[in-house]
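Student:
Attend to each token:
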Amino acid sequence: MNAKRTITIALMAFVLVSVVWLIAREVSPKRPAADSTAPSIAARQVTVYYFHRTARCPTCLKIEALAKQEVETSFAAELKHGDMRFASINVEEAGNEHFIKDYELVSQALVLVDYRGGVQQRWKNLDAIWDLVDYEEDFARYVRDEVRLFTGSA
């Protein structure tokens, strides 16, 4: 009878611990999935980030489209080899809020970030995009020239 009681208590304790563990796992904050915005561990990689919010105006969408088009056109080889990438990031999505502080964002922005071995070295906000958005050729030239200067390929 003593052994039977000990086994019963042990089984009940196991079930109780299992239930508590499952409940704790369900109510604990979920960790975001792996950060898809993080650069690869290439020797050097420049990321061209377009940061935006959930609500997007036509001008914001135009800035993103023009910037992405210019990067994909002028830096196709760098993109293909993984030396550069373009990423559009919603700073209001969970896990992305830190970008506001990291890059001193006050509105939608195009930011160049230089990574070495996966570690950020420096960054630059291309703030003239707002002044040039209605002048597509000037906008494209500005983005192209700034990326070239930033990467040292000018």
Q: What stands out?
A: The chain is about 50% helix and 20% strand. Residues 44-151 form a domain with the Glutaredoxin fold (CATH 3.40.30.10). Residues 2-27 form the longest helix (26 residues).
